[in-house]
Design goal:
The complex is a heterodimer of chains A (about 280) and B (about 325). With about 280 residues, chain A is of the alpha/beta class. Chain A is about 40% helix and about 10% strand. Chain A is built from ten helices and seven strands. In chain A, the strands form two sheets. Chain A has a five-stranded parallel sheet, sandwiched between helices. A two-stranded antiparallel sheet of chain A has the order 4-5. In chain A, helix 1 packs across helix 3, helix 1 crosses helix 4 and helix 1 packs antiparallel against helix 10. Chain A is globular and about 50 Å long. Chain A starts with a helix and ends with a helix. Chain B has about 325 residues and is an alpha/beta fold. Chain B has two domains: about 170 residues, Thiamin diphosphate (ThDP)-binding fold, Pyr/PP domains (Rossmann fold, 3-Layer(aba) Sandwich); about 130 residues, 3-Layer(aba) Sandwich (Rossmann fold), CATH 3.40.50.920. Chain B contains twelve helices and 14 strands. In chain B, strand 7, helix 7 and strand 8 form a beta-alpha-beta unit. In chain B, helix 3 runs parallel beside helix 5. The longest helix of chain B is centred in the middle third of the chain and has 16 residues. The termini of chain B are far apart. Classes of the chains: A alpha/beta (about 280), B alpha/beta (about 325).
C-alpha cells in the first residue's frame, strides 16, 4: 500500500530540508561524510517521522523503539534528523565538530540526545542491535530495534557474526537496513571487496530480505510495514541508494565520500537539491 | 574443615572448587535477587563455569557461539536496554580479539557490563601462547571508565563478583584457569573495591601483588621470616584500577623497598601502576617489577611455569634477597619519616 499523497509530500519535504541542512553541516563542521549522509536521508526520514515509536520529550523512555546507526560516519545526516524530530534545537547543529560540541563526525550516545548507541567503528552496530532485540524479549517489551548499516561495513566479519546470531535467536523484532550506495572510500564495493551476491548472503544467513529503491518512500513504507509485523525472523531491507543523492555533482562520485565545502560549493549543492 | 565462601544465602566449600566454579555459583545466587542479570558466553559455558548460572536461569543465558566480538557488542546493547550482563570468555579473547568492542561499545558508553575473564596470565600454560594472556592489565587499565580487578583466589572472586554490582560502570575481573590453590582460609574479611588488603605485616620490604602471586608472596614472606629473619609486608592489590595509592605510599614510607609481582608482562601492568604512584609522589625507594619480562611464556603446566618464571614462593624469596642488596639514593629532602 502506497503512502497517502499528503503524507508522502510531507516526508519528501522533510527529506529535502534535511539535505539542505546536511550541506550546512558540512560547512559548519569544516567537513563531513556527505555522500553517505545524503544516501540515507529517505531511510532516516521515514523511520523518524513515521515508524519509530519515540518521544523526544522523554528520550530515555523505556518502551521506545531503538535505532542504531551502525554507519556512524553518517552523523552529518543522522544528527540533523534528531534535531528536526525535536530532541534539541536545530540551531545547535552549528557547533558540529567544534570544541566541546556534543556533535562529532561519529555520534556519542552519552552526548547526543536521542542517540541510542555510539557508533563510528564499522561493523559494531548490528551486535548492539541484537543485544537490544534480545533485551526486549527478555523484558517482555514489544519495542523494535532498527540497525542502519552501510554496505561497505559489511566487509567486517563482526557484521556476519551478528547476522548469524539474530537469525539464530529468531529476532523478528530486529530490522536491518543496508544503505547500499555501492561506494566505499577507495571506490566501488565490487572493485574493492565484492559483496555480491549480497542479497543471497543475507538470505543464507537466515534473514528475510526485501530489496528496494532506498530513495522511494513508498517502497520503504511497504518494506518497513512488513518488517514491523515480522515475528520469528529478522528482516533485512536492502536499500539500493545513490551516494551523494540529491546533489547532482556528488551523485555516485567517490570524491564526495567525505568533503568540506566553501560557500560557493554549498550554494551549488543547495541549488541542485532545490531543483531535484 | 571446609572453607566457606560466597554469601549468607548460599554457602560453598571453596576448598574443593575452582575459582571459576565459585564465580558461576555466586552469579547464580546473585541472579536470584536481581532479575536484570543476564549471562553471556562464547561457546565456553563449561570452561568459564558460567554454566552454573545457565543451568539455573536458562532463559537469561545466551551462548553466542565462537564470536567474541558479537558477544561484547550484544552485551553493550543489553546494558543500554537496562540489563546487567555478566560476560565470560578467556582473557585473551576479551582484551584482544574483542578489545575494540569492550572499549568502544562498552567502556566508551560507560555501560554496566561485568566481564569475568578466565584463563588469565599463563594459567593455561600448556595451551600455548594463543591461550595465554599477559597483556590484559595493560589494555584494560588504559581504557577509561573500566575498573580492573584480579582476585587472589576463588573466595575473593566471589567477593569481587558481588562487589561489581555496586560499581556503576564496566568491570573487568581477571581470574585464572581455576586450579590455583586458595589463598584465603575463609571469607571472613572485609573486601572493598579499590582498597588493598595487607596479607602479611612487615617493615623491611613490601611485596605488592595480585592474583595467584598473593598466596606465593605470603608464603615467601613466611619463609623469609623464618630463614632470614626478615619482616616482609604483603599487599594484595586486587583492584589494579583505581589503584589504592595510599597503601602504596604507606608501604614506601614504612619499608623503602617495593617489589611488585604479577602474572602479566611487567610492561603496563600492576608494576607500572605502582611505579607511577611512587614516581608521582616524589618519594624514593628500591623498586623492582617482577612478572613476565616482556616475553611470551614457554609451554608447560602452570605450576611449572610459575616456578620457571620465579613467580612461586621460592622465586619470590630469591627476588626479595636480591633486592636487599640494592641501594637507593635517598633524597636529601626526604622528609616523610
Amino acid at each position: 500500500m502506497a503512502l497517502q499523497t499528503e503524507e508522502k509530500r510531507r516526508l519528501q519535504q522533510i527529506a529535502r530540508e534535511l539535505r539542505l541542512t546536511i550541506v550546512d553541516v558540512m560547512a559548519w563542521s569544516g567537513g563531513a561524510h556527505i555522500g553517505g549522509s545524503l544516501s540515507v536521508v529517505e531511510i532516516l526520514t521515514i523511520l523518524y517521522f513515521k515508524y519509530l515509536n519515540i518521544d523526544p520529550a522523554h528520550p530515555q523512555w523505556d518502551d521506545r523503539d531503538r535505532l542504531v546507526l551502525s554507519k556512524g560516519h553518517a552523523a552529518a545526516g543522522y544528527i540533523p534528523v534528531l534535531a528536526k524530530r525535536g530532541y534539541f534545537p536545530e540551531e545547535e547543529l552549528k557547533t558540529f565538530n567544534h570544541f566541546g560540541s556534543p556533535f562529532a563526525m561519529h555520534p556519542d550516545s552519552n552526548k547526543v540526545i536521542g542517540c541510542d548507541a555510539s557508533a563510528g567503528s564499522l561493523g559494531h552496530g548490528l551486535s548492539m542491535a541484537v543485544g537490544m532485540g534480545l533485551s526486549a524479549r527478555q523484558l517482555g517489551k514489544d519495542w523494535k530495534t532498527v540497525c542502519v548499516m552501510g554496505d561497505g561495513e559489511c566487509c567486517e566479519g563482526s557484521v556476519w557474526e551478528a547476522a548469524m546470531s539474530a537469525a539464530h535467536f529468531k529476532l523478528g523484532n530486529v530490522i536491518g537496513i543496508v544503505d547500499r550506495n555501492r561506494l566505499m572510500i577507495d571506490g566501488f564495493t565490487e572493485d574493492v571487496m565484492a559483496l555480491e551476491p549480497f542479497r543471497t548472503k543475507w538470505e543464507t544467513f537466515g534473514w528475510h530480505v526485501i530489496e528496494i529503491d532506498g530513495h522511494d518512500l513508498d517502497a520503504l513504507d511497504d518494506a518497513l510495514s512488513y518488517a514491523w509485523t515480522a515475528q520469528d525472523k529478522p528482516t533485512l531491507i536492502l536499500a539500493n541508494t545513490i551516494k551523494g543523492k540529491g546533489v547532482d555533482f556528488m551523485e555516485n562520485n567517490v570524491v564526495y565520500h567525505y568533503a568540506s565545502g566553501d560557500s560557493a560549493l554549498c550554494e551549488r549543492a543547495k541549488a541542485s537539491i532545490l531543483q531535484g | 574443615m571446609a572453607i566457606i565462601t560466597g554469601t549468607n544465602w548460599n554457602a560453598y566449600d571453596a576448598s574443593t572448587m575452582t575459582a571459576r566454579e565459585i564465580y558461576g555459583r555466586t552469579l547464580a545466587a546473585l541472579a536470584e535477587h536481581n532479575d536484570r542479570i543476564v549471562g553471556l558466553t562464547a561457546d565456553l559455558e563449561k570452561t568459564t563455569a558460567i554454566k552454573f548460572f545457565a543451568d539455573k536461569f536458562p532463559d537469561r543465558f545466551y551462548n553466542v557461539g565462537i564470536a567474541e566480538q558479537n558477544m561484547f557488542g550484544i552485551a553493550a546493547g543489553m546494558a543500554k536496554s537496562g540489563l546487567i550482563p555478566f560476560v565470560s570468555t578467556m582473557a585473551v579473547f576479551t582484551c584482544l580479539r574483542a578489545g575494540e568492542q569492550v572499549r568502544t561499545d562498552i567502556a566508551y558508553q560507560n555501560l554496566p557490563v561485568k566481564i569475568i575473564a578466565t584463563h588469565g596470565g599463563i594459567s593455561f600454560g600448556h595451551a600455548g601462547t594463543t591461550h595465554h594472556c599477559t597483556e590484559d592489565f595493560a589494555v584494560m587499565r588504559a581504557i577509561p571508565n573500566m575498573t580492573v580487578i584480579c582476585p587472589a583466589d576463588g573466595i575473593e572472586t566471589s567477593k569481587a563478583v558481588q562487589a561489581s554490582l555496586e560499581i556503576p560502570g564496566p568491570v573487568y575481573i581477571r581470574i585464572g584457569r581455576g586450579f590455583e590453590p586458595p589463598c584465603y582460609e575463609s571469607d571472613a574479611y572485609n573486601y572493598e573495591s579499590g582498597r588493598a588488603i595487607t596479607m602479611h605485616q612487615g617493615t623491611d620490604l613490601t611485596i605488592i601483588c595480585c592474583g595467584i602471586a598473593v598466596l606465593q608472596a605470603v608464603n615467601a614472606a613466611k619463609t623469609l621470616a623464618e630463614t632470614d629473619g626478615l619482616s616482609v609486608r604483603v599487599i594484595n592489590m586486587h583492584t589494579l584500577k583505581p589503584i589504592d595509592r595510599e597503601a602504596v605510599l604507606q608501604a614506601v614510607t614504612d619499608t623503602r623497598r617495593i617489589l611488585t609481582v604479577e602474572e602479566h608482562n611487567v610492561l603496563g601492568g600492576l608494576g607500572d601502576a605502582v611505579a607511577s604512584v611512587i614516581a608521582e609522589s616524589g618519594k624514593g625507594c628500591v623498586f623492582q617489577k617482577h612478572g613476565l619480562h616482556d616475553v611470551f611464556a614457554t609451554i608447560g603446566y602452570a605450576e611449572d611455569l610459575y616456578a620457571y618464571y620465579q613467580m612461586d614462593a621460592n622465586g619470590i624469596v630469591d627476588k626479595v634477597r636480591e633486592m636487599l642488596g640494592m641501594e637507593f639514593e635517598a633524597d636529601e629532602n626526604w622528609d616523610d619519616e
